[in-house]
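In line with agreed milestones, the collection of sequences with tokenised folds has grown. One record among many is set out beneath this paragraph:
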Amino acid sequence: MQTASSETGGTNQTGIALMCIGVAFLTVNDAIAKTLTETYSPLQILFLRNVIALPFAILIALKMGGAGALRSYRPATHLVRGILWVAGTFLFFTSLRYLQLAEATALIFVAPFFIIALSAAFLGERVGWRRWLAVIAGFAGVLIVVRPGGATFQLASLLPVATAFVYALMMLGSRFVDTRESVWTLLLYLTGTSALLSALIVPLVWIPVRLEDLWLFVAIALCGTAGITMMTQAFRVAPASVVAPLDYTAMLWATILGWLIWSEMPDSVTFIGAAIIITSGVWVILRERRRRA
């Protein structure tokens, strides 16, 4: 007879596997986006990715949440989150034109610290001194990676940081979604509103898609959808404190892909800054687990 501890261990292992694979898929998604930005506007990449991904998002929502997952009780909230998603993705894809994949990935890890700061400033949440210390350490890591005033500084380094800020706003916006809506509804409407909003602007930057690039657009849609779905499911089957730290494995994949595809290798200073950001983020996750316990 299976014990409760063995069942928990099994679900944790499933969650860990889903999270690791999902993060790998999303990093491949970013690598494909970086490749496509050499020819296409980030906005066109965003539009085509969402249009191709939308049928899959509908099927996933129906499979996981049933017909009820197609219904929204607060469409305006999804519209605002869609605007933020388009803005954030555009900023990040633009940064990939100028930055190494690992550098951009490291800087976007600052998002949890923005969430903490915004929650305290606008939602009145109580944030203890330990979490504030982690926030300060995280931003110190960003300064080490960006190196403002240094010879290697470039304005494009601020784009992933801006992306993290917009992403934090979008995550906080999910608190205003009707509680009757499932996470699959959120994912569906995020994809749908992003496709619609980008469709309004993409004619301004549209260029014909080359036949040899079609598979890349299909791949970025599939990788993005698969990655988000797996990561979402990981949080459903295992505690957040178990799977959330694995999000930082993206740094490993980004470094490997950057080296294999573009012969990129971040310098030691970038690794030090990334290590500080990641350590601070993991500490916040573990601290949150302790606080809830």
User: Anything to note?
Assistant: The chain is about 75% helix and 0% strand.
